[in-house]
Amino acid sequence: MKYSKLDAKDHAREHMRGIWAAALNPFNNDGSFNEAGLRSNIRHWVDDLDIQGLFIAGKQGEFFSMSLAERKRNFEIAVDECDGRAGTIMSASDQNFDTVLELARHAQDCGADYIVVHAPMLHFVTDPDDTVYNYYKAICDQVDIGIAMWSHPDSGYLMSPELCARIAELPNIVAIKYSVPREMYVRLSHMVGDKIHVSTASEVEWLDNIEELNWKLYLCSSPPYQLQTKNDRRMHDYTQLAFQGRFAEARQLRDSLDPVRRAILDTKPGGKPQAHGKYWQELLGQVGGAVRSPLLQLTEEEKVRTREAFEASGLKL
């Protein structure tokens, strides 16, 4: 641990900044975990793209298809490769509470910077606030590592800004990935100030949130390594311009990425986000690989459409 439990918020305010990306995990065609491929991707993301932190073993990484041992190994690889050059936030999300705690403790022990835990799916519950508060408090009570909340529609409900602000008072809650309509995360941002980082995964809204809400953290999805190459770091560059208060220049650079965004959105099948993301990585020269069952692979026709859109997008390789 690089900080004490009571210093977690201060540590995150100082170190949890910039662009943090959610890693897709490369799997081989036989379904095995491609550790060498992940290491190669991490080195590219950190060294070439200057991504400041990585979200490991989340939904993008197909944690739901991985064994507990694989998820722990995923943490260890990321810590080893980042080696202080980029931050790490490990997903300890799971429906089994003991698994959440085991992963949280492993992240703490192996040198991760933070963990993220998504709000649990609740059965037969119509008023979730006290239950969800108790859920996060129980985790905070048992580990020292800084914790990010994560609220998204997959849980079957959205955490209200009022509930998030209440949980934010817990000592080692440091952030929230708030996958909700903009009016909700704006309200939460005003409620908590700089007590915790508030972020959402929408890259399109990132610049506006720096300018209007003084956000310091993009947490996080795959655009940081899908919209950029070693020779074309426009997301990084418009972010730096925005942090310097040069918003007109930042907006012009951000908008220049619209053809790339459209190429991704227009070719991504609704049921195959991870498979599409991995194929896009391969087109960029990164390690993509297969998705695990029961997820669906891209068809050859879908690959052709994606490749044609990629080639017309204007990204510089």
From TrEMBL:
GO terms of biological process kind: N-acetylneuraminate catabolic process
GO CC entries: cytosol
Keywords: Lyase
Lyase is among the record's keywords: yes
Xref: Pfam families: DHDPS
SUPFAM superfamilies: Aldolase (SSF51569)
Record-linked InterPro entries: Aldolase_TIM (IPR013785), DapA-like (IPR002220)
GO MF terms held by the record: N-acetylneuraminate lyase activity
Protein family membership: Belongs to the DapA family.
Protein name in UniProt: Dihydrodipicolinate synthase family protein
UniProt source species: Parasedimentitalea maritima
